[in-house]
UniProtKB/TrEMBL annotation:
Signal peptide bounds: none
Protein keywords: Transferase
Pfam families reported for this sequence: Acetyltransf_1
Keyword Transferase part of the UniProt annotation: yes
GO molecular function, one term: acyltransferase activity, transferring groups other than amino-acyl groups
Name this protein carries in UniProt: GCN5-related N-acetyltransferase
CDD domains registered for this protein in UniProt: NAT_SF (cd04301)
N-acetyltransferase domain mapped to chain residues: 6-163
Length: 168
């Protein structure tokens, strides 16, 4: 039996090419994100800096030394009254599932968000036909708070999003 070494750590500047490539795959081939144009490495650098400036986590998962996933918590909405609520985001590289990366990343983001003073964590999960994201969030105690019907249109179809919430 072969076991893989998984490491979760803060995202560094050198990781942004991998982050951009992982995300670009979902922009081009899926509906997990409603982006239709993949952000550049420079865009990711700005997002990483903004998240860090807010004291929120932006993490990467390494599988045998290769960045194979990322996750972060970002403001849920920009109005000040929402400052104690954040949205989590998590993506794994194609082929990197089944190694515990999602569990390790989400667990680390939840704990770091709690330490940052976040009281409510929201996940926005697109109806991609794959229930793995919902199952992962359910495993950490998230519950479905509602469904927004046909709010996105990508790859020729209308897509619902489910809102999942965790009280920290």
């Amino acid at each position: 039996m072969t076991t893989s070494a998984v490491t979760i750590r803060p995202c560094a500047g050198d990781d942004l090419a991998a982050v951009a490539a992982i995300y670009a795959h979902y922009v081009e081939h899926g509906v997990a994100t409603f982006d239709e144009v993949a952000p550049s490495e420079e865009d990711w650098a700005g997002k990483r800096a903004d998240i860090a400036a807010r004291g929120l986590p932006f993490l990467v998962a390494e599988l045998d030394g290769v960045v194979s996933g990322f996750a972060y918590a970002a403001p849920w909405r920009w109005k000040r009254a929402y400052r104690h609520t954040a949205e989590d985001t998590i993506y794994l590289a194609p082929g990197a599932t089944g190694h515990g990366l999602g569990k390790a990343l989400l667990g680390s983001v939840v704990e770091a968000a709690r330490e940052a003073g976040i009281r409510q964590l929201i996940a926005v999960i697109a109806d991609s036909g794959d229930g793995s994201s919902a199952a992962l969030h359910r495993r950490f105690g998230f519950h479905e708070a509602g469904v927004l019907r046909e709010v996105g249109h990508k790859h020729g179809r209308w897509i619902d999003t489910a809102l999942w919430q965790l009280s920290l």
